[in-house]
Batch of 2 targets.
Target 1
Amino acid sequence: MTVDSTTAYSSYSNGSATTVAAKKTTLDSQDFMKLLAVQFKSQDPMKPMEDTAFVAQMAQFTALSQSSSLLAEVGSLRTEQQRAIAQSYLGCDLTVSDGAGVVSGTVTGIEYADDGPRVIIGQVTFPLSAVLLVEPGSPSNPQSAAELPPAA
């Protein structure tokens, strides 16, 4: 829920007062408690609000708070998952769409940008959403079984 309100702060500098307004855009538990207190003060003493209404409001606020927290955690999990996926592409041969066509090459690095991790193929970076095909990379120093040192 978005609420537009301003809170004034005063500071004194060189004997003169300066007022700075800070804009508040979300409600928190303190705001809920203030609203609840106002409801208590404003109710008609002859027709008091039922306690079940207050309990229901508190439950709704708690559920909203938990949903917001869950949304933040899921966003964090998604970011970490994208980083892990990008890391797993290192050394793999990828086919990506660059908007004008298709590019293939070996992933030589990962760049972390504001919009998420990007794979580096050659000198160009691509978002993970552009990946069309992933193939295991070819070994950089292939050796036949006869050339391998004996196991100890």
Target 2
Amino acid sequence: MRIHHLITAVALFGASARAADVGVSVSVGDSGFYGRIDIGTVPNPPAVVYRSPVVVEPAPTMVSVERPPIYLRVPPGHAKHWRKHCHEYNACGERVFFVQERWYKEVYVPSHQARRDEDQERRERDEEHHARAEEHHGHGEGHGHDKN
């Protein structure tokens, strides 16, 4: 009887684990994206919610390595109640700046999309160049290679 309960529990746990594994993908620039953003390529500093970075659960003082602050886009209320939400962003103990929604939509997203478009165009040019080079040089039988 115990084995039957154990098998049932394992089966239920497995089913619930699969049900929770929903394939949803949200990326930077999408309206539903919340999380870290890379400001390294943005021409101007971001507009932030608070002037000073927010820190919850400071890092231990034994190792004093100061890392740069991180910039986050969070839903309304998360910045205000950061202590409750910092673990969701793996940012407890980090110095965090919360970017303003308007700056994210009007500055960051267009900049990010332009960079993504440039990267895509570069990949397409590289692929086209590679295909032309292979066509020009030829490979395999019939192109100067012996069968020996």
